[in-house]
Amino acid sequence: MSLTFAVVKDAIPFWWTCAALILAFFIFRLFTVPAHLRHLPCVPVLPLLISYLSGEVEDVRIKRHILPFANQRGEGIVLVWALGRWMIHILDQKLAVQMSENLTLYPKETPPDGLLLWRFIGGSNVLMTNGDIWKKHSRLIRDAFSLSIPVDQFTSLAKNLFTVINPPSSSTDTHTVCWSELAQHYALDAVGSSVLGHDFDAIRSESVFVKEYNGVMHDIANPLYLIAPFLERIFPRKKVIDRMDSLVNRFKKLLLDKRTDPGDDMMTFMLKDPEMSDTELRDNIVVLFIAGHDTSAGGLSTLIYFLAVHPEIQEAARAEVLRILGPTADPTLASLSAQSLPYLNACVRESLRINTPISYIVPRTTVTGVSLGKYYIPPKASLIYNIYAVHHNDGTWGDPNVFRPARFLEAEDKSTITTVLKDSWVPFATGPRQCPARNFAIYEQRALVVMLLREYTWTLPEDSIHKDGLKNAFSPFALTLPYDLNITFTKRKD
Ligand code: HEM
């Protein structure tokens, strides 16, 4: 008895030592730059770790830690620790183009972790595939987007928004609404009606889709599982998976309904392709749903915010709109063009630059060792095109943190600057895999803001959480989405 006790007593320090050594080994492995990447300039890990632990959002982390480090050293490529992974960030526009143009050397990376997001999105779609399969998806989706831009639908959705901002029963002309939420509902209805061929009616009703989608995205972004995605395999979250599967089933039902009740939408067009399997169609519908509404909603929140805090810019944009479209005519493709509304277009471009909806792309990988700029990039490295950093480069933009739409118009007078700014404005990325819906998204923004400018003036409420600068929500998926953005709209009299 006493002997057993002595053995156990002696064993305690031994096991503690083992546990401490194992822990030390894991911590060392977690934070030490792997040998094959050690030649790359590495952003200090400790500040990044503190940044993650303190809940800093991606755009702040890029501005505070990544850009200053790269700028001080004149580097266009830096190595960044990102929650246990090592990512090579490309901040130099020319190198980013070099990477984006070459789909063979730099294919999309197959996500190495067990994040539920990948289960939700699925693997057989335009976003996640490579090679010939990607070409098949891409061709179909690009053809679908080239059909027509549904300006009339954007306009009628804007009119729906008016009834929510300023309910007909209301006796006052001034209303404060949560614009970031309304923008999400507008973007969802836009993608629903014209791309998916389904009326979510998210603007006017409590959409079950929106509720379920937001719930699933919230669950997927659980910080513990983001830091350690392998936990999904050890402790699978049954309830979350069930909720996600039920949402995916809703998408499947949409597809079934579309087969029996075709419409004048892109999904109907895509369903006619005999080469697309049901799984491929399902995975694409989820991608179009996700890619198509959060991004646009983020852009619309940002644009309305900057016009609210710069009344003189809002007024100049309104004057242009009234001059070109008059007070009531519905917008058309021609009247919304960049040539027709250059100032408004500059405002849209500037807002997509300053608070880029997707701060960086899905990682690419190297299939073999390559030279990029002055560095050797080994095989199987993860590379990210850091769009937000390119949009905030002092050298290119001079005053990157200032909202100044006129920069795009000034540039038009000086051909050399034009090329630099044109090439460095990349909210939709660049190369063959850039956003296939960029025209759709740009017209969606222009149509809504034109309608709003004629109907209302707007300001930021006194007690806004954004009064000292626009704040984005935490997003594990590199989305830059302002949150709790209240805006006070006042109906115009003339
Ligand atoms: C302001 C709005 C938008 C922005 C800023 C934006 C930005 C981007 C960016 C940066 C990419 C490249 C991602 C990567 O390579 O990892 C991308 C790809 C994509 N976007 Fe958009 N997007 C917007 C709106 C939309 C809309 C409205 C749709 C569809 C309804 C859409 C569908 C897609 C798809 C399907 C891809 C994948 C293309 C491929 O991999 O070949 N996007 N978008």
Task: Give an overview in words.
This protein has 494 residues and is an alpha+beta fold. The protein has a domain at 106-358 and 427-491: Cytochrome p450 (Orthogonal Bundle), CATH 1.10.630. The protein has helices at 2-31, 45-53, 58-73, 93-101, 116-121, 131-145, 151-165, 179-196, 208-220, 223-227, 231-234, 238-260, 266-271, 278-309, 311-325, 342-354, 387-390, 394-397, 406-413, 415-424, 438-455; strands at residues 77-82, 85-90, 174-178, 364-365, 370-372, 375-377, 382-385, 456-459, 486-491. The strands form 3 sheets. A 4-stranded mixed beta sheet has the order 1-2-7-4. A 3-stranded antiparallel beta sheet has the order 3-9-8. A two-stranded antiparallel sheet has the order 5-6. 39% of the residues are buried. Residues 126-127, 138, 141, 191, 195, 287-288, 291-292, 295-296, 299, 357-358, 361-362, 427-429, 433-437, 440-441 line the site of protoporphyrin IX containing FE. Protoporphyrin IX containing FE is lined by residues 126-127, 138, 141, 191, 195, 287-288, 291-292, 295-296, 299, 357-358, 361-362, 427-429, 433-437, 440-441.
